[in-house]
Amino acid sequence: MKILSFKLGGHVSFGPKVKKEEAVWDVLAIQNELQVLPSFSSSIVDGIALGFDFVEQIRKLVEAAEKSDRAESFKREFTVIEWLSPIPRTPKNIMCIGKNYDEHAKEMGAEAAPTELMVFTKSPTAIAADGQTLSIHADLSSKMDYEGELAIVIGKRGKNIPKNLAYDYVFGYTIANDITARDLQEKHKQFFLGKSLEGTCPLGPYLVTKDEIPNPQDLTVVTKVNDEVRQNGSTKDMMFSVESLVSILSQHVTLEPGDVILTGTPSGVGKGMNPPQFLKAGDTVKVSIQGIGTLVNHFE
């Protein structure tokens, strides 16, 4: 199931993409008007905590709408909605993995990828949406960079999760652009400020449930800047797999429904080019991952 969050006329909602249509089912409107279920969460994060029961609830709501004589009234065309991040707000900081691809580690100056997990975080206030125009933050940085990544969305609370059970705690996946102010990163000798400027963590367009992506270690990740391919990698080249990331992180941090983990970026970032090519006002960045879609943002 491909789930998206959106706003229309001041009304914030979410729902699955309508099959073969550029539209979304407004499941909150369906529940409100048809009263299909005894109860239904108005928060996508609260819903995710129910695991695949949440997916079944959404399916029941869509089936009820299709059987009603008002099915079209519950559809919201993509052309009229404001897209939101599929996870509008994470329970804690977004957890990010650094140098998880060997070639990216090398282009950043390392002789080899780290043998231990490299973790940093981004503030939840950095979250942005597909299609959103983002600031280049020229007053703070002249070295804004892109990083296309697969993002894991946690669906169940867990601590000390065994690697062989890690997928049980994954709800689904989305696309992230881990935008980074390289000069702030260098200046502060830390990642947080350079990674947390407003709008530097666009997510989307969809949250795709894990059943639609049976092997997250075999996905292409392509990033284009103004239609020029800059990154063209595969998640099979991760040093630490999805199940390893979930397991290792849970040894140190209690994972919660709605938590987002960025899995690292392939080679081809602006800083790694010769000469470096950082983002500028007027640029458009597209990050595509097979099975999920394309995350698009314009910069000004």
UniProtKB/TrEMBL annotation:
GO terms for molecular function: hydrolase activity. The keyword Hydrolase applies. Gene3D superfamilies: Fumarylacetoacetase-like, C-terminal domain. It comes from the Bacteria. Residues 94-299 form the Fumarylacetoacetase-like C-terminal domain. Pfam families: FAA_hydrolase (PF01557). Coiled coil: none annotated. Keywords: Hydrolase, Metal-binding. Belongs to the FAH family. This is Fumarylacetoacetate hydrolase family protein. It comes from Lysinibacillus xylanilyticus. The lineage of its organism: Bacteria, Bacillati, Bacillota, Bacilli, Bacillales.
